[in-house]
Design goal:
The structure holds 2 protein chains of 2 kinds. Chain A is mostly beta strands. Chain A contains no helices and 11 strands. In chain A, the strands form 2 sheets. In chain A, strands 2, 4, 5, 6, 9, 10 and 11 form a 7-stranded mixed beta sheet that branches. In chain A, strands 1-3-8-7 form a 4-stranded antiparallel beta sheet, with no helix packed on it. The N and C termini of chain A lie far apart (37 Å). Chain B is globular and about 45 Å long. In chain B, the strands form 3 sheets. In chain B, strands 2, 5, 6, 10, 11 and 12 form a 6-stranded mixed beta sheet that branches. Chain B has a 4-stranded antiparallel beta sheet with strand order 3-9-8-7, with no helix packed on it. A two-stranded antiparallel sheet of chain B has the order 1-4. Classes of the chains: A mainly beta, B mainly beta.
Chain lengths: 118, 119
C-alpha cells in the first residue's frame, strides 16, 4: 500500500482567511514533504519533515506554516495568502533513509489539494 | 546550470506503439538515484521507476523500462505498448547522495514532458 491521502481536494479562500491542508500516510514512513506546483511546471519543494522534525524549509514565506503532529500526519496552515499562492499543493512521504541506499528513498505523493486564493 | 533536462516539452504517440522520453542529468556526485513520475491531469504524481547510479542493469517495471547510459548522463524512460491511459505529464527527477548528507532528502525535477496517446 503506497497511499498518501490529502484533504481537501479543492479549497477556495480569501486573502484574509485561515485554512489548513492535511496529509496522512500509514506506510510507516518517517519523512514527509510539502510541494507547491504551478500549472505546467514541476513541483517545487517547500518543506521536509524528517522524524517529525523540520529538516528543510526552502525559504517559504511565513504565511505558510507546516506542522507535523505525529509521524503519520502533516499539516500546512495557511494565513493571509496572496492570489499568486494559488497552485496545486502536493504532499509526499518516504521511508526517510539518510544513509546506506538513501538515494533510493522513493517519495510517494498524494493526490494534491488545488488551492485558489481570491 | 540545469541538473535535470527534459528536452521534449510534448509529444504524440500512437496507441500500442513504444515511446521514449528523454532525460539528461548533471551531477559530480558518484552516488545518485534517478526517478520517473507520471502526473495525469488529476494531479497525483505516480512513481513509475527508479535507477541507482551503481545499478548494473537497467531498471524495468512492467511496461516501463529505463535506458540508463551513465557515461552520457542520460536516463530515458521507455513506455512499451502505449495505452490511452498513458496520456499524462512525465517528470524525471534525481536525488544526489552528498546532498542528502548536506541538506536532506531533496529531489530535483526536470521540466516534464507531456505525452498524448492517440487512438
Amino acid at each position: 500500500d503506497t497511499e498518501v491521502t490529502q484533504t481537501p481536494k479543492h479549497l477556495v479562500m480569501g486573502m484574509t482567511n485561515k485554512k489548513s491542508l492535511k496529509c496522512e500516510q500509514h506506510m510507516g514512513h518517517r519523512a514527509m514533504y510539502w510541494y507547491k506546483q504551478k500549472a505546467k511546471k514541476p513541483p517545487e519543494l517547500m518543506f521536509v519533515y524528517s522524524y517529525e522534525k523540520l529538516s528543510i524549509n526552502e525559504s517559504v514565506p511565513s504565511r505558510f506554516s507546516p506542522e507535523c503532529p505525529n509521524s503519520s500526519l502533516l499539516n500546512l496552515h495557511l494565513h493571509a495568502l496572496q492570489p499568486e499562492d494559488s497552485a496545486l499543493y502536493l504532499c509526499a512521504s518516504s521511508q526517510g533513509r539518510t544513509s546506506g541506499r538513501a538515494v533510493a528513498d522513493t517519495q510517494y505523493f498524494g493526490p494534491g489539494t488545488r488551492l485558489t486564493v481570491l | 546550470a540545469q541538473k535535470i533536462t527534459q528536452t521534449q516539452p510534448g509529444m504524440f504517440v500512437q496507441e500500442k506503439e513504444a515511446v521514449t522520453l528523454d532525460c539528461t542529468y548533471d551531477t559530480s556526485d558518484p552516488s545518485y538515484g534517478l526517478f520517473w513520475y507520471k502526473q495525469p491531469s488529476s494531479g497525483e504524481m505516480i512513481f513509475l521507476i527508479y535507477q541507482g547510479s551503481y545499478d548494473q542493469q537497467n531498471a524495468t517495471e512492467g511496461r516501463y523500462s529505463l535506458n540508463f547510459q551513465k557515461a552520457r548522463k542520460s536516463a530515458n524512460l521507455v513506455i512499451s505498448a502505449s495505452q490511452l491511459g498513458d496520456s499524462a505529464m512525465y517528470f524525471c527527477a534525481m536525488r544526489e547522495g552528498l546532498m542528502i548528507k548536506a541538506a536532506g532528502n531533496k529531489l530535483t525535477f526536470g521540466g516534464g514532458t507531456r505525452v498524448l496517446v492517440k487512438p
